[in-house]
Request: fold
Amino acid sequence: MTSVMYGGLVERVHSFAGYLQGQKLEKGDRLLLWSASRINWMVAYLGALLIGAVIVPLDVNSKEDFISRIEESTGAKYLITTQKQYSGLKQPPAPLIDIDDLPQEMLDTAPLPEITGNDLAQLVFTSGTTGQPSFNFATESYV
Reply:
């Protein structure tokens, strides 16, 4: 099991958020997060929230057609997953950010958006009883 101290976690979150800034992501942009639980999952999640992005977590066992439908309905800018999972997709729905090697850049705190408790933080999709994805959302005040 890998561990990280709080100060190290904050540094990694800020570095990943800096990378997302460099990709010109804006408040409200969606990111798909398709991975098993790991420290980098938390780093990606918190880094995205720091810049105001909306995380769309996906079950690690989600199938490609489900992921594609979620991307279509959310307009996600990136898919955060492993290189192995990504290369197994016939038609990747969005560009890859490799969760095993999260890119890092210096975070510029000056342009960070103001985030309120009413801002959208995550969209959680389920397959639903009809087979069509349905979602629940969580605002920043619930995260």
